[in-house]
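Reading group handout, session on sequence-to-structure problems. Before we discuss, look at one worked example. The prompt was deliberately terse, the way you'd type it at a terminal:

> structure DUF2877 domain-containing protein

The input record follows.
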Amino acid sequence: MEDPIGAPSIPVLSGDGRLLDLLSSLRGTGSVHSVFTRVVNLLTPGGTLIALAARGSGDAPRTLVADVAAWSAYQLGAGLGVTFATGNIALDRSPALRRPLRLATAGARAWRPAAPSLAPLPPGALARAADAVARICRVHGPLGGMLGARPGAGPMEAAVVRALHTGRDLLLAGLRTGEEERTRDGVLALLGLGPGLTPAGDDFLTGLVLVAALPGSRLDGFPPLLRDLLAVRGDRTTALSLATLSEAAEGRVRSELLGLVALLAHGNPTGAGPAATGPRPGTAPAATPGGGPRPGELHASVREVLAIGHSSGGDLLSGLVAGLRLEEELRGPL
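And the output record:
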């Protein structure tokens, strides 16, 4: 039951399976890293950043979805102590709580996503998928990042957008030609570039490295290169973005984005966020006669990703689209 004053025990509805496995034996003291209306970020005793999301949130790496509408009523703050004890998490008393706020993971649904492979798709399918996603982004995507500056944008935003496009072009050129130094320069040009908890440059890298991390990708040298750079230059960006990029390099991203990739691969929205529904039991995945997803399903799935953050969704999809196009190009004629 939710009762901020009485310091409830809050059930965790679902969580990243890897994180649940870790928490089942984790003991020690951590702290609150940052607090937002629907997400509280914690640091574990080992310094790993994890998230407590409000119900209705999509599943994601290093994330637990708790049975709360929002966190604002609990008056939590950065630096608050957190105790981890074999599957349970206790946040120290806050001004709104008489007792520690406890979260129990027993009974939580474990989210264990499997990254789909785009390798079996026929020639031209990746390019068509990229074009379809890009068209939806042009109509509905938020400006201010990779999708371009907003009308009337000031000189700072315009300069950031130019830098984003320059870094993107440098990175893609390096990946296209296999030039490691150029690729590294492109990553460093984007890493941490832009405002917010997950800067636009990082969101683009997340979408791009996801494609590279999928089974059978021709870009499979990119994830280890990115991981190496994050290990030595991770201080160029935020802790949240660093965690997101590290997981994406293993093919682990938010359920909304992974659901879109599954839809492109199989015509199957399984794995998408809570607003999406899969095919009825016993029926084949909905698809067009050509093997792709139905336009309405694709539109809905892309819009789910676009709803992430202020402009993060558009930047994520810009990276995904670039990765799909480059993957198609590197395959060549079959």
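Points for discussion. First: Residues 160 and 238 are 17 Å apart (CA to CA). Second: Strands lie at 9-16, 27-35, 39-43, 49-54, 63-66, 81-85, 88-91, 101-104, 109-111.
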